[in-house]
């Protein structure tokens, strides 16, 4: 895998002939945000049944649970379910997964209904009472 520095990416952008509404500083900020997002996404958390979790900042891909809403881990899958969101099919037997469901959580929907669903654990962190996203690294563009 080829690694690019921020400067390498900026040089590629400045060498292109395409007009762009973003300045070099804006590209640098965007690239830095992408790097932080990737690091946060791959931060390893090991969950067990009964843990209280929430989305990591900037990692929510569904309307529910909300980013700062606590959820309870009700199961950890030994074998993740790989899913291709674009095609809407289970691709556990291929390398074409866009998301892996390896955690089952329960949470209260807006109307108070208890809901359980499978999620990608890489998008979640332990819920710590009083320590909201403003008190940890956040992703900003």
Please summarize what this structure is.
By secondary structure, the chain is of the alpha+beta class.
Primary descriptors:
single chain, 6-stranded antiparallel β-sheet, 141 residues, 6 strands, alpha+beta
Textual characterization of the structure:
With 141 residues, the protein is α+β, with helices and mostly antiparallel strands. The chain folds into two domains: 6-41; 52-128. 20% of the residues lie in helices and 28% in strands. The chain has two helices and six strands; from the N terminus they run H-H-E-E-E-E-E-E. The protein has helices at 6-15, 24-41; strands at residues 52-55, 71-84, 89-90, 99-108, 114-119, 124-126. Strands 1, 2, 3, 4, 5 and 6 form a six-stranded antiparallel sheet that branches. The radius of gyration is 18 Å and the shape is globular. The two termini are 25 Å apart.
Q: Could you tell me the strand content as a percent range?
A: 25-35%
- The secondary-structure class comes to alpha+beta
Number of helices: 2
Distance between the termini: 25 Å
| Shape category | globular
Alpha-carbon Rg, integer: 18 Å
Biggest sheet architecture: 6 strands, antiparallel
User: Kindly state the mean pLDDT as a whole number?
Assistant: 79
| Number of E-type strands | 6
The arrangement of helices and strands along the chain is: HHEEEEEE
Low-confidence runs of at least 5 consecutive residues: 137-141
Which helices and strands appear, and what pairs or packs with what?
Layout: H1 6-15, H2 24-41, E1 52-55, E2 71-84, E3 89-90, E4 99-108, E5 114-119, E6 124-126
Antiparallel strand pairs: 1-2, 1-6, 2-3, 2-4, 4-5
Helix pairs in contact: 1-2
């Amino acid at each position: 895998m080829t690694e690019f520095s921020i400067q390498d990416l900026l040089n590629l952008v400045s060498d292109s002939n395409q007009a762009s509404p973003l300045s070099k500083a804006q590209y640098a900020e965007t690239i830095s945000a992408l790097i932080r997002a990737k690091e946060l996404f791959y931060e390893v958390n090991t969950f067990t049944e009964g843990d209280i979790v929430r989305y990591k900042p900037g990692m929510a891909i569904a309307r529910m649970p909300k980013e700062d809403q606590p959820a309870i881990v009700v199961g950890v899958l030994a074998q993740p379910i790989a899913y291709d969101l674009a095609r809407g099919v289970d691709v556990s037997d291929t390398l074409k997964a866009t998301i892996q469901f390896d955690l089952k959580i329960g949470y209260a929907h807006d109307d108070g209904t208890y809901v359980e669903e499978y999620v990608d654990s890489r998008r979640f962190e332990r819920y710590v009472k009083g320590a909201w996203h403003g008190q940890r690294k956040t992703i900003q563009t």
